[in-house]
Each structure stands twice: as C-alpha cells, then as structure tokens.
UniProtKB/TrEMBL annotation:
Protein name, per record: Acetyltransferase
Gene source species: Lentilactobacillus farraginis DSM 18382 = JCM 14108
Keywords: ATP-binding, Helicase, Hydrolase, Nucleotide-binding, Transferase
Pfam families: Acetyltransf_10
Signal peptide: none
SUPFAM superfamilies: Acyl-CoA N-acyltransferases (Nat)
Keyword Transferase set for record: yes
A GO MF label: helicase activity
Domain N-acetyltransferase residues, every copy: 34-123
Annotated InterPro entries: Acyl_CoA_acyltransferase, GNAT_dom
UniProt keyword annotation of Nucleotide-binding present: yes
Length: 131
C-alpha cells in the first residue's frame, strides 16, 4: 500500500535513487544540489511503499495565485499516473482551488500532464541553466 506524506524526511540519496529509477533526466551525482532541492522547496509531497521512496512532487507557491511544480518523479516500476495524480491532488487540496498549478514538463511527461487536467500554455520563457 502506498502512503503519501507532506512531512516525511527525504535524503538526497533516496531522491537520487528515485530519479535513477524513473524517466527523469535529472543528474543524480550532485548530492549537494539534491539536498538543496529538498530543503528549499516550500511544498514537498512524497509517496512511500514501506521505507522505499516511490514518488515525489516538489513545488514553490506564493500561496496567493500560483504554484510552480518543478519536480514530479515516480519510479518506473510503480503506477505512474495513479501516484502522480494523487501527489498533485494533495498539493492542490492544500493550496486550494484559487491557486493555479504550473508544471515544468519534460517531453516524455506531457501526455501524463494532459491526462491529469493540465492545459498546455505557450506564455513562458526560460534562461537555461548549466548542469
């Protein structure tokens, strides 16, 4: 049975292991960066199968108008859409329906985002980072 939590502690090694067993293309060799990703998100929900981290959604919100979802990762050997949907719903329920969720997607996840009710938007720009 999958347990969802907004308070469970996640180590950088657990997150690296999750990313390594998912479709995410994020590098896993910089544990310091992964630690900062965990520590500095103001919204972090996780999915657990006993003591195994199987999913995480990470976001930042002004708690007035929008929440930027910067990470949604689910292990490949678990039900992707079901766990993703539950993690997203938990964040949206916490923030309330007056908050827009904005997802930064990788090409492989676009279909999943659309299945969860996200609409594709073209009104964004980015300055790419160096890994």
């Amino acid at each position: 049975m999958i347990i969802y939590s907004a308070t469970a502690k996640i180590s950088s090694k657990q997150l690296a292991n999750l990313i390594a067993h998912s479709k995410s293309q994020r590098p896993t060799n910089d544990l310091g960066r992964l630690t900062r990703m965990i520590r500095n998100a103001n919204l972090l929900y996780s999915a657990w199968d006993d003591d195994r981290l199987v999913g995480v959604v990470r976001g930042f919100s002004d708690e007035a108008t929008c929440c930027y979802l910067s990470e949604l990762v689910v292990r490949d050997d678990y039900p992707q859409l079901e766990i993703s949907r539950k993690l997203i719903n938990k964040i949206h329920r916490e923030l309330g329906s007056g908050i827009s969720l904005v997802s930064a997607v990788i090409p492989d996840s676009l279909a999943t985002d659309e299945k969860m009710g996200f609409e594709q938007i073209d009104s964004g720009f980015q300055l790419p980072r160096e890994y």
